[in-house]
Amino acid sequence: MASTPITIDTINPKVLECEYAVRGEIVILAQKIQEELKNNPNSHPFDEILYCNIGNPQSLSQQPITFFREVLALCDHPAILGKSETRVLFSGDSIKRASQILDQIPGRATGAYSHSQGIKGLRDTIAAGIEARDGFPVDPNDLFLTDGASPAVHMMMQLLIRSKKDGILCPIPQYPLYSASIALHGGTLVPYYLDEAAGWGMEVSELQKQLESAKSKGIIVRALVVINPGNPTGQVLAEKNQKEIVDFCKREGLVLLADEVYQENVYVPDKQFHSFKEVARSMGYGDKDIALVSFQSVSKGYYGECGKRGGYMEITGFSPEIREQIYKLASVNLCSNISGQILASLVMNPPKVGDESYDSYFAEKNAILSSLARRAQKLEDAFNGLEGVSCNRAEGAMYLFPRIVLPNKALEAAKEAKTAPDAFYARRLLNATGIVVVPGSGFGQVDGTWHIRCTILPQEDRISAIITRLTKFHTEFMDEFRG
């Protein structure tokens, strides 16, 4: 008997259940249009695609931090370290840092495998950086260096989810990595709704309500995901709120999964980032009180090194037996890439005052973050100026998540097209303007409400063009479907 051929009906059903809107239907269409523009520049009523769908800064012309790239280049090609030309082309402290890092790598080779948790010397550096940020001790053995934060999230879902009866509390709206990962590993997403009317606030009463609802359905809730600053919503949690969340997790015995990859991206003077580790320790809670996993990535912040795939997770409050199992999962992947490991150490230990590269490093960092803040404000104001659109304050991260009240005729047209109303709007926006946004339905939202997620990442000199195109399109769209 021949084996059954692979069909859509015979693949893993968990793969079918998994969805990832950030690179979904609208983006696939945008890539098709981009190819059409390349072959025929007059094929559409615009001359370029403006990607506002994903947090990928360097694809939109953000320049990498010079010091970071100098160190990486020298680590990858150590043969040039001793050459006289190198001292002309590279800063003295980047040469020194690269030499120090190479001394920590077995064989001084970035092309070799490392320890499965990451190079010990780099973990030491990252641990020191976290200590300096939070003011509490860090054990380098609590750190697992990963290819960005996403593999770390998958690793924790593998660890926590045993069956469909295991649930993970996730914010709605949420970054679809979480819904996709939970689906792939066969668990159940337990939604808790952020309060849009309160600036996407997070209420512990809502957590409690959803926890009890899940329990009544026989679901065992294992963990709580918190994204701070928020994706796609852009809010920054108040420290008081974080303390309430920590207490909730301690009381209910939940693992706290803290997605903190946007910790550098805070744009308002009345908010600041506090890690959940810092908050928990300031409350007097130690390893025996709460299990906490903190995720960080080199893809976001001001560095935007998405393609280098660097990141880490810090795990605290787990028994030695559980840590052995997490290490086993890391070992299956052998190790994360070495360039990403190096970048993670640089992000947590950048040039200091007095270093040769400090002035240029600080100027580059400040220019990027200041520009992001201005872009966020301009786009926020533009959305709030559109008919039927309301947009909460852009406090942090890289996104706006405006709500759009669509006319009934637009809702009917979307129904006829067999698509969600916000996806209908996003597709029409793309076809008319070349602007790519993600429908809110890809992130989850309160039933009967419609949103889009728009990044703030197009370069500052392109923001006005985006606003002009968006405003013209929205006015014509509302006129077309009005009444």
From TrEMBL:
Transmembrane segments: none annotated. It comes from Erythranthe guttata (Yellow monkey flower). InterPro entries: ALAT1/2-like, Aminotransferase_I/II_large, PyrdxlP-dep_Trfase, PyrdxlP-dep_Trfase_major, PyrdxlP-dep_Trfase_small. Its cofactor is pyridoxal 5'-phosphate. Pathway: Amino-acid degradation; L-alanine degradation via transaminase pathway; pyruvate from L-alanine: step 1/1; Photosynthesis; C4 acid pathway. GO terms for molecular function: L-alanine:2-oxoglutarate aminotransferase activity; pyridoxal phosphate binding. This is alanine transaminase. GO terms for biological process: L-alanine catabolic process.
